[in-house]
Design brief:
about 375 residues; alpha/beta; FAD/NAD(P)-binding domain; 2 domains; 5-stranded parallel β-sheet; 4-stranded parallel β-sheet
Amino acid sequence: MKRVTVIGAGFGGLTAARKLRLSDKSLEITLVAPKPEFIYLPSLIWIPSGRRSPEDVTIDLHHFFDKYNIQYHQGAATGLEDFGRTLITDHGKVENDALLIASGGRFLKKLPGIEHAITPCEGIPAAVEIRDRLQSMKGGTIAIGFAGNPKEPSAMRGGPMFEFLFGIDTQLRQEKRRGHFKLVFFTPAAKPGARLGPQAVDGLLREMEKRDIETHLGHKMKGFTKNSVITEAGEFEANLILFMPGMTGNTWFDNTDLPRSPGGMLKADQYCRVEGWDKIYVSGDSGSFPGPEWKPKQAHMADLQSTAAVANILRELDGLPPEQTFRNELICIVDTNRSGMLVTRTEKTNLVLPSFIAFHWMKRAFEWWYLREFK
């Protein structure tokens, strides 16, 4: 029996495990993750307003594992042996005939005082802290921003920060408290959201102006204090700071000889295969992939990469060379907690549609459609 091990219970890992089973009923599939649960990260933006609770976005995966006959190994990856044929975890070893790494990325938390900022995409505790802090505040300045990894241009998550920015503005207006707060958006980039396309930049800035959100753009970050954001252009007050730093690879990669990009991700080819390694593939935030500089780090992209990786793993297990590539495609709805801006980008097209209430409901409908598989 051929054995395939998948590391990670996020978008890329679950897509890979499901597609492996649908393609081959005889495979022995093992999924390795610290917890048997899936956190639907796109919906964290709705926790501060109470539109979603932690329970709404946390999915127990036991039903999924049973449905698709997937073995679950509880543990965190710590290294590799036997040229990748043995995965070492903090709860034992798992042998494989092919390996797919979808263990996510790690935020670069090197700025002085970054402990004073909340990183929303770290998970439910961060979103709950934002909710609780907002509820306790009578007024003040809320600063929301993001940065990237200068050695890995695609390793940033700006989209969710625009959603937290506009969502908090909407929430405060609905609570009739907006007049007591100042919202400031900051980023080292002079044109925020440039990877979404030029039209998106203009649309985002217009939305900020319409909502009376101040901007602090194009200045290198220097750090934070408990009550301020510090850039090369100076320091400004902030009573609540939400900041998404750039991303790099997992620390366990350091315990392997897997090739790394300058930004710390696993180097992958056009087939999602880790360069120079036999039957080891990568998808999602763990990898550095060929393609345009704007290629996104988002769930949709992880799904596309996992789909290609699975096809190529199955070919290699049958003694055939990999041939399936993936398309670089960005699709997102920048949600405002009431409406949303639709943005799509491929290597040939870039579409930006202005904010409509219907797009907010489309995002909520997609959440239901995506999660139905796991419930």
